[in-house]
């Protein structure tokens, strides 16, 4: 199989209900992260922080230590092909969000993974490609 994973997209971690102020004090106040807003992704109880090309999402929920919403999201080249390969290997793939270019699967240890294929118009295009194009144009 050719290289299927492009990069880390985001990590989502659970936080206890009604603790957004504590999370903001830590992640913004102490670590200096900037909260990002996206009308298509803004949900009550979810904080999103930019980490360069990646993102950290904190989601309020019933905290159990390892919550179902906790996951690692990876940017992939061809989500449909990768999902087919995972199913062929015996893994159950949740395609309920497939229309958004994403699927969910658990690794052999029960860790939830989100596989995301960003739209071709997304900011996912590597910066160095744009810089190279600018240098050629000059």
From TrEMBL:
Superkingdom of the source species = Bacteria
Q: Which Gene3D superfamilies match?
A: 2,3-Dihydroxybiphenyl 1,2-Dioxygenase, domain 1
> Which terms are listed as keywords in the entry?
Lyase
Single GO molecular function = lyase activity
Question: Keyword Ligase: yes or no?
Answer: no
Spell out the SUPFAM superfamilies in the cross-references. Answer: Glyoxalase/Bleomycin resistance protein/Dihydroxybiphenyl dioxygenase
Q: Where is the VOC domain?
A: 7-118
* UniProt protein name: Catechol 2,3-dioxygenase-like lactoylglutathione lyase family enzyme
Lineage per the UniProt record: Bacteria, Pseudomonadati, Pseudomonadota, Betaproteobacteria, Burkholderiales
């Amino acid at each position: 199989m050719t290289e299927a994973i492009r990069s880390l997209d985001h990590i989502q971690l659970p936080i206890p209900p009604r603790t957004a102020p504590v999370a903001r004090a830590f992640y913004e106040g102490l670590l200096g992260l900037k909260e990002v807003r996206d009308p298509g992704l803004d949900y009550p109880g979810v904080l999103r922080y930019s980490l360069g090309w990646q993102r950290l999402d904190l989601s309020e929920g019933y905290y159990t230590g390892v919550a179902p919403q906790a996951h690692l999201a990876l940017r992939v080249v061809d989500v449909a092909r990768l999902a087919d390969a995972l199913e062929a290997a015996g893994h159950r793939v949740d395609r309920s969000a497939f229309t958004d270019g994403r699927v969910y699967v658990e690794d052999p240890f029960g860790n939830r993974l989100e596989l995301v294929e960003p739209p071709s118009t997304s900011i996912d295009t590597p910066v160095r490609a744009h810089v190279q194009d600018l240098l050629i144009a000059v």
